[in-house]
Structure formats: C-alpha cells, structure tokens
Amino acid sequence: MSGVNVSVEVPLENQVFEITYDGQEIQQPPLSMSENLSRLAQRIDFVGKDDEVGGRNNSGVAASAAGEPMDESSTSGGGTTQGNSEEQTFKTAPAWPWESARNKLQTALTELSVLGDIISIAQQKKYLVLDPVSAEPSDPKAGAVLIYKKRGLAAAAQVLISGSERLRTSMNEAKSKTSISSLPDFHIQLLRLRQNWRLRKVGNSILGDLSYRTAGSRFPQTGIFEVKKAEDAPDETDSVADEPPAPSSSGAASSSQHQQPPSTKPSSALKVIVPNELQGIAYIEVVIQKDQETLSFANIGLPSPSPAPLDAYWQQRLEAAQNVLFCKELFSVLAREAVALHSLPIPPLVVGSQITVTLFPGILLIISLCHSINGKTSTPPVTPKLDHNHVLEHSLHQLLREVHRSNSCIPLPHPASAPIGVSRKRRLAGPCAYDRQTLLTMTKKDGILEEIIKQSQHVVLRLRTMVVIDALSRDIKDPLIVAHWASLNAVTHTCVRLTLVSSGYDMGARTPLMIHVKEKSLKAILRDGKAIHLSYEPQEIRDLILAQIAIHQVMALQTLSKCMGWTVLSSNTHLGVGTCETIGNAAGCLLSSPNGKRQLAIRSSPQLYHCGIQVFIGYPPNSVVEGIGEIFDDQTSDLNQPSLDDGTTDFGSGIVYKSVKLDRLEGKHFLNKIEMLMAVLGDLE
Amino acid sequence: MDSLEPSAKQQELQSLSALDTLTSAMKSNIIPNQEYLLQGSIFDNSVDVLLHRLRGLCDNVDSGPETFHDHEACFVLYGNPGTGQQPPPLTLRVRRALDDTSAPWHLRYMGQAEIGDKNRPTMIRSTLDVAVGSDILEFLKELGCRREFDFITKGFLFRKGRLKIIVGKVYRYESGKSSQELEPVTQSHYVEMSVVAPTGQDTVGDDMKTLAEQLKPLIFLKKEK
What we know:
The complex is a heterodimer. By secondary structure, chain A is of the alpha+beta class.
C-alpha cells in the first residue's frame, strides 16, 4: 500500500561464548560464510528423502540463504536441541511438489552468490588475493631437445633428398637419350618461357597469363594457359586441338621423354595448353566497300588464316592465342560502341561478327572478326587483290592500346599532396574557373569506332581526290597539273599542293593551289589566298580545278604580255559577259600591241570541250583585215558589223574583231601559240 | 525568338545554384574527404633499396619513378582572443610544385586524427583538398592567417591502384637561397602511404596494410608517428 521502507538490521551483539576470569567476555565470533554455509548444507538432505518439511524450516532455510546472522541468532541460542529438532523436522514430506526443486535452486543460488562475492572481493585485492599456482619448472632435457631438432632436420632433409632424386633421374634420362641432343631441356625451356610470359605455380601445375591485364586491359575474358611436360610423339601428331590432359604433372619423373619421328620437326620439351576459345588464328578484317567493289582493306593480326601446327613452338602458339584475345577484345569494344553510336545519320549495323558502317552514300565500312580454328575458317577469306591499308590496321591496334594505356597510366599529381586519379585538365578547372560547358566538353571523348570511321572517311576522300587529280592531269595537257602530296600527314588530314604550269613558261606562268583533305570535306586555298570549302563530292574539286585552269591561262597571258611588250588593257577573272558558264566563270583579258595597231581579246572558259579558249584579234577601224593564213574562224558572226537597216544610232565603226582558230596556229600549247601570234601581230609597221 | 530565351527547363537548370549541387554531393557521400594514412621513416643510406622495392611493387613499371619537388607553407588561423571560449586554431597547408610551375597550387585542410578502435590498420583524418591559384597567399593573409613555417620537400612518388606512396626528404626553406643549395633537416627520408576516399570505404585500410607488409623489414609503416 504505502511504500514503507523496512530496514532490517542485524543486532550487533554476538552471543557470548565464554567469560574469562578477568571479566572479559569472549564473544562467539559470527559464523564465517563458509561455516554458515556448511551448517546449512548439513541440514539439506541431498539424498532426496525430504518427506516432511516444516514451514518454519523452509523459512529458516530461505532466510539463511543470504547468510544473515539473524537466522543464526535465532537458532544459535537454541543450540543443538533446536538444531536437532530442525533436522528431525526437516525430513518431512514436501508441502507442495516443487519443494525439492526450489530448494536445490536456492542452494545453487547461494553457492553462486558466494562465488560472486568471493570474486568481487578478490578483485578488490584488499582482503583476498588470487595467486596462480606456479607449476614446477620442467628441466629442459638436453637429450629431448636434441631429438626434436634432429627429427625436424630429418624431415626437411627428406624433402630435399626427394627433390634432388627427381632431378637426378630426369638428368640421367636426358643424358641417356643422346640421339636427339639438340632438344633443349625442359627446365631451360621453362626458363625461356618464364622470360617471355608471366607464370605462376598453382598446386601441382604451372599456369600462365597471356592477357593484356597488366597493360591496362579490362576485358573479362581471362587468358590462362597451362604448361605441361611434352608427352610422346604419336599423341601429338594426329590429335586435334583438345588433347587429353596429360596425367602427370610437370615434375613427375616417370613421364618419358618424347621421341620425334624424323619427318616432323623437333618440338620443345614443354607443351602449352591454351583455352579452347583462344585457339586458332584470328584477325580483324577492315573493308571499305563501294557497292560491291572493294576499295581498300586491312587485316589485323596474322594475315593468312593457316592453322598453327600443333607441334609448333610454344612461343608461336602463345602469341597466336594472345592475338586472338586482342582481336576479341577489340571487336567487343567496337561492337559496344557501334550499338551506342547515334551521331551518324545511318546508325551502324552489328550482325554476328560483322559491323557495317556507312561512311558516305554508297560507301560502306565493314569490320569483321575472322576466327579460324585449325584451318576451318568461319568466314571465307577475302582474296587479297588490293594492297593492305596498313595505316588502318595500325590505327585500330594503336587505338585499343591507347585505351589500355589510359587505364593504367594515370598522371601523378604535382604538387605531391594533391589527390591522384584526377586528370591534369580537371585540376586546372578550379583555379581557371571553367564553366559547365567547358567541363562537359572536356569529358567527352571519341570512341575507337568513331576514330576509325573518321580515318576511313579520310582514306576514301583522299583516294577520290587522288583519282580526280590524276584523271585531270592525264586529260589536260595545256597547263600541266603537277601534284605534290605531303609526305607527313595526320590520320585525318592530308595536304596536296597543285601547280598549274605551262611548260616552257614556268617562271612566269604558275598557279599554285593548295588542297587540304579532311574527313568529310576539302579546303582549297587559291592563288589569291581565298579559302574555299568543298564537300566530299568529287565533282566539286574537278570543277574548281577547271576554273583555276581557266584563270591560269589568262594570268599567264598577262605575264607573257609583259615580256612581249604588249599592254594589258583590261583583265577580269570573272567575266560577266558572254555566254553563261555552267562551271564557274570565264576569265578574259584585252591586250594591245606595242604600236597600238592590233588588239587581242581572250576569253577563257572552264568548259574544256565546248568553248575552251576563244581568241579574237582586233583590227583598228577602217583597216584592212589581213588573214594570216587561214586562221580566222569564219563561222563566228562578225559582231561589229553595224546593221544598216536598223535606223538606230550608228555606233560608228569600232575595232573589228576576228575570231581565231587556235588549232591552225603553230605552237605547243596556248601560251606558245599566243606568243607566236603576238610576235607576228606586233611586228607590223 | 524562342531560341534566344532559354526554355523553362533550362531556366530551372540554370537556377540550380552551386550550393545546391554541393550539398547534394556531400549528402550522397561522393566527396573524398577522408584520408587513410600510414607513415614511417628510413635512413638515407637505405633509401635506394626501398625505391627499388617500390618500383617493383607499384604500377607504371615502364616509366621510372616520378620525382617531385614541392614547397609547402603552413598557415594557422587563430580564434578571437577577446572572447571566452577559443576555438582550436585552424591549420591550412598550401603547397606548390617547384618543378611544374603550370600546375595549380594546392590548399589542404587536415583535421585531427580520428581516435577510433585500435583494430583499424591505418590512421584516418578528415581532409579537404582544393586546387587554387597563386593568389591564395594574399587571400589567406587577408583572412588573418599567420604563416607559421615553410619547408621544401623533394622525393619520389609512386602509385598502386589508388594508393599513393611518397618517399621524400624535408629541406629547410630560406627565401634567399636558390633551389640548388638545399639544407636537409634530418638524415632520413619520410615515407607516407595515403588514400583519399569518401567516408565509409574502410576496405582501403586492408589494402594499405597488405602493401605495408610487403615493405617490412625495410620500413615499418605505422599509423602513429
């Protein structure tokens, strides 16, 4: 009901035990814990004959569980009589069935509490200290130690002896077969192998790794190969790629040395087993196709799909397997990028082991992975009628290596306390306050496929430009077209310098033209410095060159006239008179002879075969038109004839122009002919 | 007309202030602001052996070890002496590369080492790295920081995965002297292995411990000084 604190106090007086003669009372010391416990334990009937237990005894036992002297004061006064009665009355039948269990639990609790108290007192270290029992130091018997050491050494020696036995037997066997002494020893071969490839010993077998992982590749396919001692010859010569795994490990002395039949060439003492998917030969075929005709192609890896002979030297086999792995990785990277590429108007098509990309309308780039296992080719090899484009081959190889390198070589920070993993440009982004746009463009990077597309486009464009220039220089002889292609170029940029020159008149009559060939466009720089951007259509460059030829003729003529003493009355590179040209503009100039008695009017048109160059000789009014030979072209209308029946204003009689048939003139080419003409016309009185 | 004015979505994106992006970055635990560190020292006469061993263990075997030559200055910002409670002084370190003058300067704040459980193999302290320009000195002076000390350090820099290992030697800094006459402070080199990572990536400590084991008994890298 109400919380009343009840405190239980122990009466401090102890029972007087004895009174000495001088009046001192010797009090009975309170029972120690162990004495109390033993007194209580005597009361407990551990046998189990607890038939009748009085209630008082229960309470007595319960109260004494805590070791209170209160109990003892009540019982100690009684002395033994009450103790006896208690003992007697203790063995009574249990009042309720859980009596015995409860008693036992209580005693257990008592004991545990005692234990707990002892431990806490021992921890205080003031009243009770626990000391370890020190064992007797055992004498180190010198004899026993000696025996142990001897046993250990014997075990180690046994291992060494067994190893040396194996080596000795293998050496003896090697010495015994002196017939094929040129065969190198297994261990020397293993040493050579170890110098070229990474090997490690796993359990009993020697495994190696031929992947590009340490170079920075992150291709999931592992390139683990196993090295085994070569078995007998008959197994090797007629078995296919998957040989039964050799049962013995490399160190087993029981394997016999192989004996080669004299027909096959001797192989090495060890044999490498490459994983099945890396066997055979693989190469990546890059073909640029226009409709059905192949323009250019390249092979990566070993060019001929001939199978590697099974008893080939291990170096060749391992290199072939590594090449297969490289080609697989390259193709997987290309395929992944092809699927994700959206910047092209026609997205690339990935079918099986072939990627098709449209470079220009009608021109396709086909990249395919050709993997042949033991001579059975998966795709028929393309007959190599055209030359390999080694640049494309090298580029693909280099691009993947670049990816590997960027994975492994991260530039280290300067100053050294800066965090690693951040590229140099990113480090500068903070202090230089780059904006978001700059940061975004900095992180964008072209993939391998995009790079190879650009290079292939450039190859096609360069080829086309070459074809156009060659065709023109073959067809046109009047100004000679001299093309100098730059020998050092970038992969997507080539320069060609065209010079239009009239032979014999090189000093004065030269027109330079510089053409930059890029991936999808051309840039032409004309003689006056103008830059013209052209698209990839070959017709555009052809038209430009023709136009430049027309201008060249007129310009060359001006230089010539200076030499000859003729005056240039007017000159125009883009004439707005006359028939409208389909390509470009016509150029023209008007010359006057030194004595002023004759004029020359020249109109040079870019169209080669229709009008070409038209030359008119102008005669002063009221002069006699003398034909020099039959050079005049009578079919052209005499433009200066005034029509008399017009009734309109009389123009007066001006200069009479007569057209000249150039093919009747003597001379190698146009300039030569005009020089002759100028010489003749200028010589009149 | 529409192309000149940004659309509604673009305007919304532009209004994302730098503070918003920074707080979201901090919440998503991607900012590397914890440094896991192991340090040790080695006498000068044994440095070559250590360098050979590190060259074999670390990445970039084909190119030689990268050298560095830095100048570090320590700035301390004391709290207001007038008020009652003084906050602990803030230490900032400014480091510039003497061999690469185009590289940005580096400002670093390093907090106290975390006193955590003894089972952790490395020392952990919170770090903030900022790339700054050369006007940081003026800025810190204006803020009220006092330039406590300077030193020059020269040595080699290695990398293994994301572990950075520095083997360097500390020299005294004199403003008048050229870089040729460097006066060493001790007869030994210091070695530091550190990784800066976001909080919670404790597996890094095990990697560091593995590498430190490889360098025993040449050098014992410990987490305390």
